[in-house]
Amino acid sequence: MPGMMDTVLNLGLNEDVVEALAKQSGDERFAWDSYRRFIQMYANVVLDMNTSLLEIQLEDLKEDLGIKEDYDIGGDDLRSLCQSFKRTVLEETGIKFPTDPKEQLWRAINAVFNSWDNPRAIKYREINNIPDDLGTAVNVQSMVYGNLGSDCATGVCFTRNPSTGEAGVFGEYLINAQGEDVVAGIRTPAPLNKFSLNEINENGETLEEQMAPAYKELQNICDLLEKHYRDMQDIEFTIERGKLYFLQTRSAKRTAKAALKVAMSMLESGAISEQEAILRVSPEQVEALLHPSLDPKYADHETAKGLPASPGAVSGVIALSADEAVELKEQNIDCILVRQETSPEDISGMVAAKGILTARGGMTSHAAVVARGMGKTCVAGCSALVIKEDENLIIINGHEISKEEKITIEGSTGRIFVGEVPTIESSFDDDFLSFMEIVDKYRVLRVRTNADTPKDTKTALKFGAEGIGLCRTEHMFFEPERIQAVREMIFSKTTDERKASLEKILPFQKMDFAELFKALDGKPCNIRLLDPPLHEFLPSEESDLKKLAELMGVTLSEIKTRVSSLHEFNPMLGHRGCRLGISYPEIYEIQIRAIVEAGLEIGEKGTSVESEIMIPLISTVEEFRLIKELALEIIDSKGDLPSNVNFKIGTMIELPRAAIIADEVAKEADFFSFGTNDLTQTTFGLSRDDSGKFLPAYVEMDILKEDPFVSLDYRGVGFLVEHATVNGRIGNPKIHIGICGEHGGDPKSINFCHKIGLDYVSCSPYRVPVARLAAAQVAIKSND
Amino acid sequence: MPGMMDTVLNLGLNEDVVEALAKQSGDERFAWDSYRRFIQMYANVVLDMNTSLLEIQLEDLKEDLGIKEDYDIGGDDLRSLCQSFKRTVLEETGIKFPTDPKEQLWRAINAVFNSWDNPRAIKYREINNIPDDLGTAVNVQSMVYGNLGSDCATGVCFTRNPSTGEAGVFGEYLINAQGEDVVAGIRTPAPLNKFSLNEINENGETLEEQMAPAYKELQNICDLLEKHYRDMQDIEFTIERGKLYFLQTRSAKRTAKAALKVAMSMLESGAISEQEAILRVSPEQVEALLHPSLDPKYADHETAKGLPASPGAVSGVIALSADEAVELKEQNIDCILVRQETSPEDISGMVAAKGILTARGGMTSHAAVVARGMGKTCVAGCSALVIKEDENLIIINGHEISKEEKITIEGSTGRIFVGEVPTIESSFDDDFLSFMEIVDKYRVLRVRTNADTPKDTKTALKFGAEGIGLCRTEHMFFEPERIQAVREMIFSKTTDERKASLEKILPFQKMDFAELFKALDGKPCNIRLLDPPLHEFLPSEESDLKKLAELMGVTLSEIKTRVSSLHEFNPMLGHRGCRLGISYPEIYEIQIRAIVEAGLEIGEKGTSVESEIMIPLISTVEEFRLIKELALEIIDSKGDLPSNVNFKIGTMIELPRAAIIADEVAKEADFFSFGTNDLTQTTFGLSRDDSGKFLPAYVEMDILKEDPFVSLDYRGVGFLVEHATVNGRIGNPKIHIGICGEHGGDPKSINFCHKIGLDYVSCSPYRVPVARLAAAQVAIKSND
User: Fold this and answer.
1) Measured between alpha carbons, how far is residue A505 from residues A482, A485, A610, A630, A634 in Å?
2) Chain B CA closest to residue A581
3) Are B179 and B247 in contact (CB under 8 A)?
4) Which residue in the set B574, B690, B715 is minimally distant from A575, CB to CB?
5) How many other β-carbons are positioned within 10 Å of the β-carbon of residue B64?
6) Chain Cα centroid distance, residue B457
7) pLDDT tens for residues A243-285?
8) What are the two backbone dihedrals, phi and then psi, of residue B480, each rounded to the nearest 5 degrees?
9) pLDDT tens, position by position, B623-643
10) Strand partners, A235
């Protein structure tokens, strides 16, 4: 817990010792300044005094002397200041400042023990799941000074380069200085060795040259420490009169790239086991490896922040509509699509843009889900963003940005910058591939992907996906040639008219599925039948409605009447999912026919097909049965299936009632897939589209530890998931169970999925490696 | 199962027997006609033949003869017809029509046994929960004929008047006739006695006069049967040559009024016990007793049907807006408010109108809930209704109805009539009061009411409510003087502005609560803090928005911006309930202050106050804790409470997550109240406002046995209710648990509440007696 608990430096000083120290070091200022610091720190930590009174005295003194920096105060002035400090301590606390070093020591030890219960430490333990009753030790170290002359130095070093992971001692130091000076940045530290050279320190002389023996020793001990701790170390050292002291060592923070490099090279050298190597890289780091990120040197002060909806870092001019984005793309101009929120009509613009920025919507809003699916950078729900479409500009936190001006967004942090910020590229290299191969040896959970297109599928397969866990068929309906037929279908007045429109869609759907089956080459493909309410397929703009009326040969008012008759107060809880399939069986019929016919076509060509037909939004077993019968009828009508073509029929568990009656449903179903997005919405009674107004405050106020749309809520939603899993397996021991909500790519949620024994998780293509690693880590930890 | 299984009449006839019967009766036509009927019935029931071929022959014969009625066909023609029938049977079935009476009998017995599995019987058993493996007996009765001469007769009688319940044999008969003739309505039946006289049969001579000995015997045996079966009987009898035969007896269907009268008089006579008397009146009958209903003599062909949202039967001219309804009321003209759906803005119109008719919305839509609360007749969700506001007319199933024209609606059946239909008044009499007193001795569940006004509260108390189970405070915000302050509050930009607006509402709220406490006189009063999203308080019409902008001194565009910023995609899952109370604590603060100050004021005057402060829509225990702390602070700020004033703090369980974590919540809460409307919505993922589009089809298709908003879904929603009850009691054994959703007034749901051990149910005032009876019945049945 570095920095979380208290410490007292320079302990043991009193006026006699200070005089001696001044003499020994030949630096009176240094000696009295050390005493001044000790009094301040002791008063604060041990005597629990408000030390701002002392700060004020220090400031007043500098003002009287007409100087700006602490280190310009002379020895005599510091001596008087120390005496004044001690008087103030007496006045404020009623305690005479102790001169006996032993008394100082015992009291300090006590205070450090007590700091186990300071709010900072309590919070830190809470965040890191460290038990409160673990307790602490107190280290007592003798002080060493790196500033007793030119044979002294102080520095910070890593046992490897923390940016790249390359082997070799890496760090900086200052001659004749104390630790604080390195941090304060008053003097520019010099590189330890040539390996540590950079643009800023290149003029300094290296420790290797200046103090060869100490450097040699540092190098040896760095090796030793790394071997002992079996991890790359972050070390603070001081050289006092030529003698090397280690102040502190701990596992080093490192970039994603370094984490991977270190893990792989320590594994190669035999320093750590495969399991340890796997645990050394965090899932978040794997994610970072797959996407570019902003160069920290240039990305300092963001203009605003939104939700980190989909990772990556991109710059571009702003595009305020899908059409604009498409036009810019044609002119080869990078752009960011900026919208209040996106809708399926924006898909073409999302494809054309480098990234997406929205003012509304949460982590599972349309923009976020689609962007993650595409592996496209997205920052969502930026409340500081105002879009003035009619004025052709946007305002971000007060900054007006017109078209042609560039912005930069970073999807892993949600940061937004005006202008262009340089980025660091991703590193999807051999090291990464070998690491992931090792990872796969240890995981139990299978990892599939949520993908609707052959392109996404191929990306996901490259990332190691073992099949499709969720193919959302509705996205296939938005292609320009198809949406017209879909709209015709919606405006049909009879079942026959509806069937005629659907027949037009059949060849497209069949082709879609055939391509997916081909790409998957026998890996399972879970296809969800149409889910969204029909009104999502209708245009919302007046001009588009007019166009539609012309195309359909009906009046605008007829179109509007139909649109308004489809309006729902709570579309999330409305006429969608299998409810549509029951009201209009012809819709599901055409989809199932497309799946079955595509499967047979591909199967004939010698490619295996494992297709899962998924019925969405069931709340009763009767719904499932009805549609299953429809599906079986279509499958049976094709005669005996070839042995390399299989169709399974299962359902999404995405409503509390479906989870509750899982035992019954399981008797009828081949598989379950938890739709935890919707299940979270209904379990919490919380619309993801509307939650932006209060959910962030809820997390801030600690009402919710985390956004339940990001990390599965174990206690509530998890109860239902577990209930359904346990009872589903009782109802049908052979049932195959996975999860396809956004949680399928979240490491904490994956832990849960492993623990309750799901068969697989499914996530967007770019999260597949994250999920693979998380699944391996939880398997390894569970075996401990 | 009368009519559900098969029967074969006139069995035993063959040509020889028919000849003998013709001779004996002296009526050849009768004898051959009996044979003709037997062949038809036997072919249908026993030989499973499609008898339409026989029907056609009968029709052809009549056409050839140039006659219209069956009974005009002569004996000879019937004889030929019988022979032709038998030939057809042989051709169609390959079976020679059996002449041996024994063979006929055995085959008929078999067929009747098999009819246990006909679809009609299966459906009937399903509806009435009769087990399929119960099996049946087959009765073999010798035929008697009431048409062998003028010393024969046939009739139907009840042991009491089935309309009023008055004691005495009541029924009609025909001399020289068969049972069919009474039913067919060809001849007008005569009254059995003077007691049975009515407008239609008053010219007939009574059986008592015509066949005194048989009548006397009938009377004696009626008495005997009623005593034996301990219930009023519905009897079919035949007199053959002066001898009385009983064909059938069963418990008689009766009107609500008769059910009550019969139960009370049989109880008084000692024929049945109190428990039996209670079980003799159904909760639906109690409901009918409280409301007028349409006179069945005049209410034959409805124009359309909607949902039976709130009982009663009323006529009036149509009012298409709340203002119109109010104007008509001022002119003393009865009107029906006809709306697409109602919103809180329509309340004044709902109060003014005699009844409400809506085109959209389900059983728990705004119109339905508010109407039930008011005890006002309502038919909701009539899809055959089109409202043309600009043309000042409505169209019901093709019938144009202009203003000034009357319509009639019946809320217990959902029927809608063009024009005025006479009604039968309710009977809230002494018999009813004594019956309900007996009922209360047996029930375990307490019964409270959902009421927001002193008027509703007084109605409910008159009906036996034991307190308020749900006072919806938002309804109090819609009064004209208050809504302005509420809207100011919504448009406030700072907490202080918001507080200032709320201070204006405080005195009104305090007065509201004081009046409720006074009316309740110490009975518990559960008050729910503000629940709906803020946008519900804003006007929706452009003109009202303009008015509001003027009043608030802001531009229309500012108003519109605020309105659109409050827009939600799924308001049901949005920023409402305690989420509002957490975002704007000042709203709940003012409400709690109003409750506490009103309680203390009334307490001081010597009236006891038992107030329950209910926090809506919690999904986490932290939400509950936060608002509980706010409430405790306000209560504590008033110093020690007098002993006659109590405040409890609890929560609504209306989201699946709240039910799941009930054990934790219970540790903090004094009470739970299940909000099963919302819990049903979230458990099923089904918006009640939108469910009208497919829920009726779901019920029709048997996907759902019943509308889950009407009758609690035991398997799904009930699982959560039971889970929360069991775990809530583990978390806090003293917790008090009730239900306040619409299900609180539904007998089947009340059964469930009793079985899982809730403390009380709460329902709209007019359903309180229904709930009391249902609670007593389930308690009695559970003790069996």
Assistant:
1) 6, 7, 23, 19, 17
2) B694
3) yes
4) B690
5) 9
6) 22
7) 999 998 999 888 788 899 999 999 999 999 999 999 999 998 8
8) -50, -40
9) 999 999 999 999 999 999 999
10) A157, A249
